[in-house]
Design goal:
The chain is α/β, with parallel strands linked by helices and 331 residues long. The protein contains ten helices and 14 strands. It folds into two domains: 207 residues, DHBP synthase (Alpha-Beta Complex); 92 residues, Threonylcarbamoyl-AMP synthase, C-terminal domain (Rossmann fold, 3-Layer(aba) Sandwich). The strands form two sheets. Strands 1-8-2-3-7-4-6-5-9-10 form a ten-stranded mixed beta sheet, sandwiched between helices. Strands 11-14-12-13 form a four-stranded parallel beta sheet. A hairpin with a 6-residue loop joins β9 and β10. The two termini are 31 Å apart. The structure holds threonylcarbamoyladenylate and magnesium ion (MG). Threonylcarbamoyladenylate (TXA) binds next to β5, β6 and β10.
Length: 331
Amino acid sequence: MILAGSESAVIEQAARTIAAGDLVAFPTETVYGLGADAGSDPAVAKIFAAKGRPSDHPLIVHVADMWALPLFAAEVPEFALRLIKAFWPGPLTIILPRREGVATAAAGGHPTIGLRCPAHPVAHALLRTCAQLQPPVRGIAAPSANKFGRVSPTTAEHVQQEFGDTLLVLDGGPCHVGIESSIVDCSRGAPVLLRPGTLTREQLETACGQPLLQPDGLPDPAPRASGTLESHYAPTARVRLMDAQALQTALDVLGAEASDIAIYSRVILQSRSAKVLRRRMPDDAQETARQLFAVLREFDAHGVRLIWVETPPDTPQWEGVRDRLRRAAAG
Ligand code: TXA
Ligand code: MG
């Protein structure tokens, strides 16, 4: 059931649903989340069951403000605090050592916890209302509201397509960031960028005052986590990344025979077939992030077999979009 998410009666209903141990999908500025009371292991188990996600893949716990940090985190290093002060509320998730015995299922049993304070007004109202209940719900565990491995939802309708009409979905309109939050692991003594988002590496490094390490070379790897799997965020059609010239050559070779292909490119390509679906990729990385998942879903809805995407520019602004497309293409 989709409900306009900004009315207080609706927020109240959603908060009570979460407090009762059930699931609610809600908008954030990045993507829609599938939420449950982070403090209730049985409620969190419903998320894993609904998504079909392995229960050792940790979830992000969403909080109303930074004052909730000590409820979940055992310690907050100085560089993490700087990141939090710079970017919360916003599209940044911080991994911290977890307080023992807290949000165990949400953390997938790992000794760390991912925390994020989202900026979307509906998410914020929901988190505040939950925190004011008696007894309070101080954190909402929420992965992206899609089935395991699929493209994240950026509208309430996308969520409903994934889970059907029985799920309560708060509608906050289309997400304006469009790809998932940047994740910085702050539990290892130095910051490690686990998942790029729309905040650039430079913005993050300036805020925390030190370079971000890459997860690859670390002595003990981060837990296996969905967003960092090689193949993820995949539509049903096969995705291929090519430069503009390779795309044009491929279309020329197929000529009038080309069909069941969708193209997402910045340059305008010529095709002799009317059965090639084309969408223009914006020149701006933020704008592309905003529409990327909706475009992939739209191509799938047309039933194309192949999605050919022009490789995005190799600049820092495009790191998040490049990452999602690379994973979609690995599917
Ligand atoms: O923008 C977002 O982050 C969205 C919205 C709903 O907040 N959420 C999201 O959740 O993308 P999800 O579950 O699809 O991806 C969260 C990722 C996990 O796949 C994992 O990579 C990482 O967060 N994560 C969470 N807790 C972690 C932990 N303790 N250690 C390492 N990685 C963790
Ligand atoms: Mg996800």
